[in-house]
Amino acid sequence: MSDPAYLLVADDREYLVEPGTEFGTDLGVLEVPADVAAGDTVETHLGTPFEVRALRGPDLFTHLDRTGAPMMPRDIGLVVGLTGAAAGDRVLDAGTGTGILAVHLGRIGASVTTYEIDPDFADVARENVATAGVADHVTVHTGDVTDELSELAAGEPFDVVTLDTGDAPDVVERAPDLLVGGGFLAVYSPFVEGARDAVEAAEAAGLESVTTRETIQREMEFTDRGSRPSTAGVGHTGYLVVARAP
Q1: Which of 79, 119, 76, 75 minimizes the C-alpha distance to 98?
Q2: pLDDT band of 169, cuts 50, 70, 90
Q3: Nearest-CA neighbor of 83 among 59, 101, 64, 58?
C-alpha cells in the first residue's frame, strides 16, 4: 500500500498533511518528519503540540478534495453492506467523481478499476487515491466505461460493479457478462427516474434480487425539553438499486 497522509490535530484544528512537508498555521510552523507515524506528537516552532492520527473513513470524506456531488458516508456504507464488498474482491466502478467511493473500497482491500469521463475529476481522484494511501488498490481511468464494456466483459469477471452515472442502464444491460455468478451490482442515482431505469435494465438483463432503497438519515437532538429528530433537514441524498448476478 502506498504511503498515506496523516491528520495533525490540536484542539479544534485539523490539518491533512503529507510526511516530509512543512507548512504554516496560526499556531506556528509545522515541520512534519518523513518518518512520522500515527501516535507521534509534532510541535510547531512556537512549541504548540499536534497529535498525529491515522486517517479514518470519516476523515477522508471531510478532508479529501470533493467536487460535484459525492456519495455521502451513509451511501457508501449501504453499498459495502449490501454488496458484501470485501478484501480481495475485484470491483468495477464508473462515475468516479473525485474518488470517494473508490477510496473507501480500496481501504477495505478491494481491487478497484474505476472510470471517470471528466479529466479534471479524474485528476483529483488520483490525488485523493494517493493521499488515502490506496494507490496499490485503486486504478483511475479517464474515459467512458461504456466504450470499454466489450473488453472488460472478455476479461476476468468482477465481484462487484458500482455505478454512479447517467448512462448506468447501458452498463447494467451488460452486468451478467461483467459479474461472477452471485456477484453484486449497485447503482446510485440522485433521481428516482434514474433508479427506475436501472431497475428495468436489471430485470431485463435477468439479474436477481433487484431492490431499490432511498438513502435517508436523520440526526437526533437531545435537549432538556426532550428528544426528537433534528429539524435541520431530512437527509435525503439519493436512491440505491442493488441486484445480483445469477
Answers
A1: 119
A2: very high
A3: 101
How far apart, in whole angstroms, are the C-alpha atoms of residue 69 and residue 20? 32
Q: Give the residue ranges of DSSP H helices in the chain.
A: 57-63, 73-83, 100-107, 119-131, 149-154, 168-172, 175-178, 192-204
3-state secondary structure 121-181: HHHHHHHHHHHCCCCCCEEEEECCHHHHHHHHHHCCCEEEEEECCCCHHHHHCCHHHHEEE
CA distance 81 to 217: 16
Q: Is the dihedral of CA 195, 199, 200, 205 positive or negative?
A: positive
- Three-class SS state of 10: strand
Top pLDDT among 223 and 59 is at 223
Among 3.10.20.310, 3.10.330.20, 3.90.480.10, 3.20.20.30, name the CATH number for the domain at 6-54: 3.10.330.20
Grid cell listed for 138: 485503486
- The tens digit of pLDDT for each residue in 88-138 reads 999 999 999 999 999 999 999 999 999 999 999 999 999 999 988 899 999
Looking at the domain that runs over 59-244, which CATH code has it been given? 3.40.50.150
